[in-house]
Design goal:
Helix content: 10-25%
Strand content: under 5%
Order of helices and strands: HHH
Number of strands: 0
Shape: elongated
Low-confidence stretches: none
Distance between the termini: 77 Å
Structural class: mainly alpha
Oligomer: single chain
């Protein structure tokens, strides 16, 4: 039989992780962080598969086998006149 000073399982849960200082800082909030993949309405985020990019379909065969060279595609090249 214990005393009222004994720590209950509920107390341990409320105390939180014993390896954190529980001061409300970033270490508590980022530990359980997840990437948000929904918008404000709860709909899945658009991954831009439906964008109309001129010339993007020209190398679909190469993309399928993992040999895409996107930096040489027309839509990936600079239009600033630089030669990089």
């Amino acid at each position: 039989m214990g005393t009222e000073a004994d720590v209950t399982p509920e107390d341990l849960e409320l105390l939180g992780d014993k390896d954190q200082d529980m001061d409300g800082g970033d270490d508590e909030t980022t530990g359980n962080a997840k990437v948000d993949d929904t918008d404000a309405d709860g709909d899945k985020l658009n991954d831009a598969d439906d964008l109309d990019v001129p010339g993007s379909e020209l190398d679909d065969d190469n993309e399928d086998i993992g040999e895409e060279d996107e930096e040489n595609n027309y839509y990936s090249q600079s239009d600033n006149g630089d030669k990089d």
